Amino acid sequence: MDDDPYAVLGVPHDAAHADIKRAYRQRARELHPDVNADTDAGEQFKRLSAAHDILSDPTRRAAFDTARGRQRATGELPEEFMDAVANAIDRAQIYAERLVVPLYSRHWRGAGSEMVARLIRDLEALGDPLWLQGAVRPLDRWRAQRLLKRVVLTLDLRPSARLSEVYRDLRGATVILVTPWALHRQGFRDGAELDDAILRLVLSRVVQVLASDRLGALDLSADDLVERARARDAQVRQRVWGQRLLYAAVAGFLGVMMFAGYAGW
Which DSSP string corresponds to the chain? Predict the structure, then answer.
């Protein structure tokens, strides 16, 4: 699309997600062909929808901002620094998806609460690859892919004091935004320090996402949290096995009844 989506929606380059959504709804009511009889309204409505499709999707928005070189929106950050951040995020994502989460998936029981509690307990040590021991099993790799399937890592090119932010998009995916502007402001430039900072940031956010719907209040010590998670998984396993036994008993009863009816016939 040749048009600037920000200009089409009438929002600034650092507009929040809610402001973009609000602007789209207001303009859509004005330009919808069923309401506006102007011959140009249909074409303008198409441009409006295309602009909204780009800016409402964090990944597409980040790609657009990067492609157009929004230096003003990123606080005049050097291109080399932006490339270093993007590469560090890619490395951190691969490390989490192919090593950390698969190795901890071997502790999966019930709903996976113990696995996440162990990740929280060991979070400070996960940045050191020497901490992780053992080979990744195919089952663990498959489970990690399922857990992280709807987790999206992307750059937030707006000036912000926050290193990162987590939210759910309109499609239900969990988006983890990393802010290069905040990293640059805190003194990170490139090299090992930047890699280490982004790795720890990404790992903490991924663990936060995994824990959001598996653990309750995190007001316990690390070891007590693991024990509580293990007890919760045990309850889930008992409930699941109870349901399976019930289904098996019902299926067996129906099978016997059908066999008896067939034999009588």
Answer: --S-HHHHHT--TT--HHHHHHHHHHHHHHH-TTT---TTHHHHHHHHHHHHHHHTSHHHHHHHHHHTT-TTTTTS--HHHHHHHHHHHHHHHHHIIIIIHHHHGGG--TTSHHHHHHHHHTGGGTTSGGG--SPPPHHHHHHHHHHTTTEEEEE--S--S-SEEEEE-TTS-EEEEE-HHHHHHTT--SSHHHHHHHHHHHHHHHHHHHHTTT-----S-HHHHHHHHHHHHHHHHHHHHHHHHHHHHHHHHHHHHHHHHHHH-
> Residue 216 has what pLDDT?
65
Are 52 and 84 within one domain? no
The answer as to whether 233 is a domain residue is: no
Give the pLDDT band (50/70/90) at residue 100. Answer: very high
Q: Judge if 184 and 140 occupy the same domain.
A: yes
Q: Are 30 and 48 in contact (CB under 8 A)?
A: no
Helix 192-211 × helix 79-95 angle, to 10°: 50
Measured over the CA atoms of residue 227, residue 228, residue 229 and residue 230, the dihedral's sign is positive
Indicate whether 20 pLDDT > 70.
yes
CATH code, 48 = 1.10.287.110
Partners of 165 in beta bridges: 177
Q: 29 lies in which domain range? A: 5-56
Q: What is the pTM of this model?
A: 0.59
Same domain for 110 and 178, yes or no, is: yes
Three-class SS of 76-87: CCCHHHHHHHHH
List pLDDT tens digits, range 31-44. 776 676 666 777 88
How many domains, in total, are found in the chain?
2
